[in-house]
Amino acid sequence: MRLRRIGTPGKIALTCGLSLATAIVLASLCGLWVIEERITDATGYISTLADETVLVLATADLETASVIAQGLVATPEVRKIEIRRARGLPDIVLKDDDLTRGGEKALMALTRPITPAAGANQMTELSLYFVRPDRWICTILIGLCLLAFAFKVLLIWRAPELLQNLVLRRHLQATRSSSSVSRPRHRRLARILSPTEDAALPQVGTLGGLLESETDMAMLLSVHGKVVDVSPGWLKAGGYRRENVIGRPLHHFISDADRKMVTDRLERLTSSGVSQVGTLKFLARKGETIDIWFAASPVSTPDGQHFTLAIIRQLPEISEAGHPLPPVLTDQLTGLLNRMGFERALTRLLAAGGDEIICILADFDRFKLVIDHHGYETSEEVLRAFVSRLSAALDPVSLSARLGGDEFAFVIKGPNARTLAENFAAAIHYATYRPVLVRTHSVTVNIRVGIAIAPLHANTSETLMRNATIAVSAQKATGRQGTTWFQPAMLADTRKRAEIQADIQRGIEDNLFEPRFQPIISLASGRLVGFESLMRLSHPQKGVIMPNEFIAIAEETEQIGPAGRQFLAKALAGLRQISRHCENEQLNMSVNLSPNQLNPAMIDFVGDKLEAFGISPSRLTIEITEAVFIDDSDRIRESLLKLRALGCRLALDDFGTGYSSLSYLSRLQADIIKIDQSFTRNLTDPDQAVASRARRLIEGIAAISISMGCVLVAEGVENNEQARQVQAIGVQLGQGYLYARPMTLAQTVAWIRSS
What we know:
This protein is α+β, with helices and mostly antiparallel strands. It folds into four domains: 1-180, Beta-Lactamase; 200-314, 2-Layer Sandwich (Beta-Lactamase); 356-488, Reverse transcriptase/Diguanylate cyclase domain (Alpha-Beta Plaits, 2-Layer Sandwich); 500-754, TIM Barrel. It has 24 helices and 27 strands. Helix 17 links the parallel strand 22 and strand 23. Helix 1 packs antiparallel against helix 4. The protein is globular and about 95 Å long. The protein starts with 7 loop residues before the first helix and ends with a helix.
């Protein structure tokens, strides 16, 4: 065939055609590369899911396996699941309702063998079927790539004829029209949540039938850890009525020992979106506990609300001596036993009798700071490093467990168990002596150890672990790193602590927390400038309980929040009343906030109450101690910034008693420095060396504070000589028994009238 010369329009058309074909080829290749990456990611996720599932199926019975299969099929990734059993037994096969025969043939499959535990149902193999990501788009892209390449070759070799061929031109137009790919229709597996018109909490629809099941245990939680909905099977297992469950915090249904672990897991799930799996003791309505396994995952509504869905199953009992512990009773992070596995194994050891059994409990001190500063990943590496360092000393140890969070337990049994326990406790401390290096971080941790002996101190695993925990608490009370052996006398302290905790709770419920007002006086003029408001618990039978008896316990039990809010509201109301009696709207008031109270919600509460009582924020001083900086975190820094923005003043209390007060002073940018009362009282000590040293310390504090523009308050002023000396040094304000003891609101008003 003779080729004719191509004119200018033909050259333009040919160039455009070649460019279009090249662009289609490149775009198709890029699309294929992206799809291949998605296939790799999907396969990796399914592989991990299969590996974790076979561990659970190894100890599961047929009913539990069916529940797990339903949960997996309800996920967006898995379309079909097969659990094959021993020959002669029917397999478990579940698939999506909307999966067609043709679609089933196109699924990708991943199979894992199951190694069943002794006595478990003989399940031998698990297969998960999933959609090859963008499989049909991949086919279209390959077709487009081949078609564009052929078109390019054809343009080069038969350009004149192609340019003049109307039929081919129409064909190309049709090809372009048919090559426009519409957006794929995404399949919705199930309507998870839908908001109601007459309730603040959304009602649950269906998720593979789990939340409507009469047998399966499932629950839905809000981001704040409150129950949104539960399955009838959950209610049946716990013996609860739905109206007594919905809206209550999750920790009401969990044993005390597991609450901290669950709180940490929910925080991690919320912050990272990573599903959490573990074991815990579920509290039934009649008081008994049920050992359960849980898997919690984040879910969302179409309108952007976020929740946590937990699938739960009861764990099998282990009663036969020598029965192997199932994988679900081990800690995934460290490879040690988890709490439930440890308790069951310890029960078997105690039942066997014989030699003394020693339980050693190790608890990291203020480990939450490591999490706040460095994150969960680094904190987990610290725990792994601790176990690794301790591995060489584990030879005499019969049981080793991570009970949850930063708490570990060990058991030593034998005729010389006490000596071995002493040596092992020393090894625990040595394992935390050196900082742990995690990438670029150097993390220093402290650990407290408590030890209890069976049968001397206990005959059951529960009592033995409780007594070891009491010993740890006794060691923590010393404020030092070390080891404490349980003593029966410690039970009295534990009962006293429980009694105080009950008093605090009663104070919260019956509105018994009250302020006491102590005047702050200008040393130069003797004029009243304000008050410090001090917390008291006014018990109807015990009388006034001082803060040194309950503050530490309230902080540890997180009761300080509601107690502090109750106290602050009364203190601000008292300031307004005092100001009216004095006809002085310039009087200020200071209150002390602990590190646990420094959170954005508390600062918002402060702002709301100041506005409600019509008090300017500049009249309120928030006193903090160096403990705030020891617990330094994003939460505390944000709270201090919010206090500044609100207009409140900041005071550093008990200044000079800490080991690095000057560095804290520069970081805080305090408005007021309160000199600790021990320095003020020592000014008039009969020992001249003590008095001289106290004076030099106050002079140094005054020089630094005044140069930084801070107002100085001397606490503990008890006589005129102390007042004269601190004023001569440069202190502006005084507070102490010389002026008045802390007084009730009525006493304060009477004191003002008589002054």
